[in-house]
């Protein structure tokens, strides 16, 4: 039986398993911190809404909320 390229990739990947950047034990802390940052940034943006504050406060707040929500969902055991 000859070896296929896909089989070679499969065998090479088994030598080094995937290690996530944020471990399972730290997901709750990271998610809570991101959601707290999102709350503060969106509050500041709501107090002083302007076009110049959109990239400074609005975009980071929405990114922090998005990633924080996903981390919190994963941390409490709801897998998406």
UniProtKB/TrEMBL annotation:
The chain crosses the membrane at residues 26-47, 54-79. Pfam families: Ost5. Keywords: Membrane, Transmembrane, Transmembrane helix. The keyword Transmembrane applies. GO terms for biological process: protein N-linked glycosylation. It is a multi-pass membrane protein. It is found in: Membrane. One of its GO terms (cellular component) is oligosaccharyltransferase complex. Component of the oligosaccharyltransferase (OST) complex. Belongs to the OST5 family. Subunit of the oligosaccharyl transferase (OST) complex that catalyzes the initial transfer of a defined glycan (Glc(3)Man(9)GlcNAc(2) in eukaryotes) from the lipid carrier dolichol-pyrophosphate to an asparagine residue within an Asn-X-Ser/Thr consensus motif in nascent polypeptide chains, the first step in protein N-glycosylation. N-glycosylation occurs cotranslationally and the complex associates with the Sec61 complex at the channel-forming translocon complex that mediates protein translocation across the endoplasmic reticulum (ER). All subunits are required for a maximal enzyme activity. This is Dolichyl-diphosphooligosaccharide-protein glycosyltransferase subunit OST5.
């Amino acid at each position: 039986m000859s070896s296929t390229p896909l089989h070679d990739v499969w065998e090479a990947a088994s030598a080094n398993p995937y290690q996530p950047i944020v471990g399972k034990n730290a997901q709750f802390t990271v998610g809570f911190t991101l959601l707290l940052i999102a709350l503060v940034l969106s509050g500041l943006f709501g107090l002083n809404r302007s076009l110049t504050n959109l990239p400074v406060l609005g975009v980071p707040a929405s990114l922090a909320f998005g990633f924080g929500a996903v981390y919190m969902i994963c941390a409490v055991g709801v897998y998406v």
